[in-house]
Amino acid sequence: MPENGAVNDPDKRVLPLVVRIERAAPPQRTDALEAAARAVLALLDDPRALSGEWAADVKLWETTGIRKVVRRARGAEWRRVLDLPGLTVTVRTAEVRVHPPVPLDAWPRDLSRLQVSGTDLADTEEPGPFEPPVIWFNPGLGMTAGKAMAQVGHAAQLAWWATPEEARTAWRESGFALAVREADPEHWAALEDSGLPVVRDAGFTEIAPGSCTAVADAPWLPRGADTAWGPLRRS
């Protein structure tokens, strides 16, 4: 994602997300996307990220970019991942583990050895009815599930930053319930101009830089205003 100003490489952080994909029982795509978004929210609200042992890395990550990388694991790989600091979120068929931010070029070995490729999941049935909040993703971009998981994670994070405390409390009590859905083209065009938190990708992988990938929509989020997040930044 774009960088505002010079940042020393050793200071750069990335948020690892690991999705469990067993050969015999891969998760549904929508379940994995929703689990990724909820995992990001759970980490942002965790006491260890707010004032505990993860806080310094989270703060550095938020001020140097909020890059997220999704990898896959199965079997013994997944069991090793569970031994590392982090949180696991389960949404129906999907399990996603989020870890505190790590240096861009110094991942823990049991995470760095995991594959990024092979996360192109599918829904075998149409996703069911949903209630807001919802993260809409761009119907015109052919993203793998891994790429889309990172994008909806960004959207969830922007939504969290824009959420007032009273609404945060209710969202927290719901277990960060949300839905992820693909918008139809007409709806997407309206969402891009709505003033809701929108993710613009840096173009590191799969899609062109500056592409709008996802929009977060919730009843408490303001519309028609400049949310001033910029390219995945609070400042």
From TrEMBL:
Gene3D superfamilies: Bit1 (3.40.1490.10). It is an enzyme of class 3 (hydrolase). It comes from the Bacteria. Its EC number is 3.1.1.29. It catalyses: an N-acyl-L-alpha-aminoacyl-tRNA + H2O = an N-acyl-L-amino acid + a tRNA + H(+). GO terms for molecular function: peptidyl-tRNA hydrolase activity. The keyword Nucleotidyltransferase does not apply. The keyword Nucleus does not apply. It comes from Bailinhaonella thermotolerans. SUPFAM superfamilies: Peptidyl-tRNA hydrolase II (SSF102462). This is peptidyl-tRNA hydrolase. It holds the Pfam family PTH2. Keywords: Hydrolase.
